[in-house]
Design a protein that fits this description.
This protein has two domains: 13-57 and 228-259, Homeodomain-like (Arc Repressor Mutant, subunit A); 66-197, no CATH class. It has eleven helices and no strands. It has helices at residues 13-26, 31-38, 44-55, 66-79, 83-88, 95-117, 125-131, 157-166, 173-187, 232-239, 244-259. It binds a DNA duplex (21 and 21 nucleotides) through residues 8-11, 29-32, 44-46, 48-50, 52-54, 81-85, 95-97, 99-101, 103-104, 107, 151-153.
Length: 260
DNA sequence: AAAGAGCGCAACCGCATACTC
DNA sequence: GGAGTATGCGGTTGCGCTCTT
């Protein structure tokens, strides 16, 4: 039997709308079913991913806040690359988003360290970090990797941060962060970074129920409206995008599938 | 102004685990 | 309890936008 080729690549607005419609209709569980019934010609997996990472109404938009970034680093030092677990502690953020943030963070950290490592450079907390035999991009298990042969596995962050925190080193998580922020400040005098240097107070509850910490001034609101956008018009388009005719035809489509 | 490099992000892949029959 | 299927997770890739030279 010749199986029709599944659509791949970026989602169109129409596909998004359709998916949202059918998820609202059938719930966000039976992805293969939704994929079929919607006629999206995508795999259930792809539908789920799109929903979870982009269309879910509780998702926050935009960059991670400084509090969230601190939290990610703290949790990563505790749990390593358990992205979904970390994401659960950051309402409205996805594992994918956090993964991407961490990758970017490590990339910057590495670049900074490289810069510092050059003969002309002098002091800095990151240099002390590497001089402590905790190379950022080549922890013990990946030490054979060439510099520049970057792998996402080579986060190094876990060992470094754990080691430093555990050993009560002078170089704290904040120092690393400050280093990066300051270096960015040097490049572009961006005032947005000012608050990043202010350490938030956290108070959080772990999955096991024990208290870890969480941001005291957490701004997240679970009743956040769907797709908060700068552009109100754009937002409305997403909320009420299709004509009622369009919805009706999807409704028919779903019904037809169910009734055969 | 154009080309190349770097970066951010969305999406895919493969494997592991959970669920259903 | 085992097989088949669905879902979840972590790692990786590719594309488009922005920045730099």
């Amino acid at each position: 039997m010749v199986q029709e080729e599944m659509r791949r690549g970026p989602w169109t607005e129409q596909e998004d709308l359709k998916l949202v419609y059918f998820v609202n209709m059938f719930g966000d569980r039976r992805w293969d079913f939704i994929a079929k019934v919607s006629g999206l010609n995508r795999t259930g997996k792809s539908c789920r991913l799109r929903w979870v990472n982009y269309l879910h109404p509780d998702l926050k938009r935009g960059k991670l806040t400084s509090q969230e970034e601190h939290l990610v680093m703290e949790l990563h030092s505790k749990w390593g690359n358990r992205w979904s677990r970390i994401a659960r502690k950051l309402p409205g953020r996805t594992d994918n988003e956090i993964k991407n943030f961490w990758r970017t963070f490590m990339r910057k950290k590495k670049a900074l360290e490289k810069k510092r490592a050059s003969p002309s450079s002098s002091s800095g907390s990151l240099s002390s970090l590497s001089s402590n035999n905790h190379a950022v991009d080549a922890d013990d298990s990946h030490a054979s990797k060439e510099v520049g042969e970057e792998s996402f596995y080579d986060t190094g962050g876990y060992d470094d941060i754990m080691g430093l925190i555990g050993a009560g080193e002078e170089c704290s998580l904040d120092d690393i962060w400050k280093d990066i922020v300051l270096s960015e400040d040097n490049n572009n005098n961006n005032n947005n970074n000012i608050n990043i240097l202010q350490q938030p107070v956290y108070e959080l509850h772990s999955e096991e129920g024990s208290k870890i910490y969480s941001p005291s001034s957490w701004e997240y609101n679970c009743s956040h409206p769907l797709w908060v956008m700068d552009d109100e018009e754009e937002s409305n388009k997403m909320l009420f995008p299709a004509s009622s005719d369009q919805y009706y035809s999807w409704y028919e489509q779903g019904n037809a599938f169910l009734t055969g």
